[in-house]
Give the backbone structure.
Amino acid sequence: QVQLVQSGAEVKKPGASVRVSCKASGYSFTSYYMHWVRQAPGQGLQWMGEINPISGGTSYAQSLQGRVAITRDTSASTVYMELTNLISEDTAVYFCARVHLGTSPFDYWGQGTLITVSS
Amino acid sequence: DTRMTQSPSGLSASVGDSVTITCRAGHTINKYLNWYQHKPGEAPRLLIYAASNLQSGVPSRFSGSGSGTNFTLTISSLQPEDSATYYCQQSFSGYTFGQGTKLEIK
């Protein structure tokens, strides 16, 4: 069965960086793009970016350009999302989600990872 | 970015009722509109894709319609487990979510 398993919750100080992992199983890793979405407390879902698992090519939300980087390790079927220069507004639950084609929906999601930014 | 506007932002209904949530796109997105259900502490769940296609395993009381800029999600015969926040998402040009509609079951 398809599974996306994310790394655990973390607490970070402002200005620090965080890296969240998303390990995929149960399907061909290179056949699906991986996206990241976050939800801040009391807020809606915000798309962050995506990665092409074959080429490693990425696309990011304009609001996060320069602070977010998505990478992958195809040998480990794992995608990583790194967010740098953290601010309190980055406190959120972060989700990975897979997409088959460019206009397809997010059909499987990770369980979510809570990142808390606090001094 | 394509702006997605949902209405209402919240609603309350009883078990057995039918409700409709509306989603409007800032410009035409053909039928590239998806609906998700999100419960606290869980991952979002895909309900409807390409405006009107029911995702495998989703109860048939969920249905979607629309094209262009105007879309609806209808939940008929509401059940207690339908209490959640519902999001529309366009996948025509990048990905954008609506602001969500919180559904309370009385």
